[in-house]
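Re: the 667-residue chain
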Amino acid sequence: MCGIAGLWAPSAGRDIWRLAAPLGPALRHRGPDDAGWLAAWPREGRTCAARELEATRSDADVPPEVILAHRRLSIVDLTTGWQPLSNEARDVWIVYNGEIYNHLALRAELEALGHRFATRSDTEMVVHAYEAWGTEAFAKFNGIFAFALWDGRRRRLLVARDPLGVKPLYVGHSAKGLWFASEVKAAIAAGLGVPEVDRQSLELFLTYRFVPSPATLLRGVRRVPPGHWLQADDGSGWSAPRRYAPPPKAEDRRPSREEWVERLVDATRAAVRGQLMADVPVGALLSGGLDSSIVVACMGQEASSAVWTYGIGFPEPGRESELDVARRAADALGTDHHEVTADHAGFFGEWADTLGQLDEPVATPGHVLVRMLCRRVGRDLKVALTGQGADEPLGGYLRHTPERWSHVLAAGPVAAAARLGARLLPRREAVRRFAAVASEPDVTRRIAAAFAVFAPDQVAALLGSGGTRVGPSDVVLEPVRRWLDGTQHLDSLNRLLYVDARLSLADDLLLGSDKVSMAHSVEARVPFLDLDYLAVAESIPARVKMSLLRGRKSLQHLVARRTLPAGLARALTAPGSGWRRKRGFDLPIGRWFAPDRLPAVEDLLIGKDAALPEYVRRDVVAQMLEEQRRRSFDRTRALTALLTLEVWHRAFVRGNPAEVARIGVDL
């Protein structure tokens, strides 16, 4: 796993050296093991690669137009996998971040076509695949990746991101030139961008609690969408994103429920086996829940010694904590387990620090715990498998349930009853959201409502749009509409799950997981997002995935019984087993909005030093705080989103570490 960056600046002249110099160092945390640079002169058809930027200057009288930077975290092919890496003719070059698990099979195909390899790395396979198949090669890659290709023959720069968006990749264009980077902070360090809020994306953030690709909340910065590639031909700008990932296949209605379980078991084991690909030791993050326990069990079947696992939680005197649950799972699985104890008192300071690391505001405080855990993992290992990504294709979240029964909920009496429930239980935010979903006949609007933190009328009030908005705007609907395109052959639930895996999972959970793990030079792998596994999971009909009697994610319970030790499987899946099933971490968010803490929150959000009133109406925020104080409405999710925006602005836009440190003391 690595960090990549680059720029194409035809008019920069000798200033290009100064612009490029910070790109690699800004990403050192992503790749502390090695560094590499490529300078390219498109008009002359010449390139120069070296470990030091200064060395690429050589005896050049004319400065290059293109410079690519690479920071390496050595995991596969430790001795010959240095980058930038080229083909035999040295006219196609790559800087690459990630792993392609089927690279050996593709390498064999390419060797049969006459390609010759100089290394054992999956990186080199990408270069030869591009030579052989062009951009159609990208759909053949089963892995997690973001890369840039310099095609000297065509004077073309291409960038691509993996199908599920596990690895982030940003692009931008300014007067100084166009650029790409694994993290925005590299471009800012180089002076290619400035940390300014893009007000046009505020509506997206307030609705989703993150900004869906290709937009970001930073002016002039775009995120490459999952499963897409872009190109630049002359250094003047990037093309529109082009999708290479194929549309989903139709559900297969022939197999029985038992056959689907067997297919999932086989696919899970194969995915874990494939993602153990490494020339360094591989561990796992273990929460003690269903998904991470299955991953660790499958790892144990392939390992010759005990798997190293890592868990985190808050101590909870008088009752079983997340630490206890993970410890008991580790004991049952026979792992070498390591723990991190989180501290409620210091959580806010860690969260503020994490938001600065993320580059973008993502209102998911749980990223803090992953960061703290990976800080510990990084002392021992470079690679850890996780249980992330199973809920989206299998329908594991509460927001998935209404879509399974949307044909019933759309009936007038049911929708009316849901709206009545929302009026009778105004404090219950989940009830209000269910009412919005249940009463919406349009699938695009219904999916947007399932994710929404703020309802359309609340977004309008916050932004001072005026009037009464009765539905989401086209800006909000476009990300859902984009991913729904080509899914018309799927049933309603599977359409939602397909969108969820490429919208919320990619641009919230995976984005955060990558940034916080790579901050400590740890590659977090996701077997449940293996493409062969997804080909199975996303082909299962809704009636098999979810039913009234079996509830959500019942298939994974059956997978657990075939992969876990009997006692652990029973504890995690059997009703009334006596072992508390894993729940969400007991994050101290509710404490932030308790009556005794609200004055400090109010000062942060709308006080004299607050940035939030620059973007949203102060009086609307004050009203939400008052509703929370009086407990007339539960505004926890909404206030968390607003607090995220404020703290991110102080940490990333203002870049004031002392101010961020004070926030932790206040709360």
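The two ends are 36 Å apart (CA to CA).
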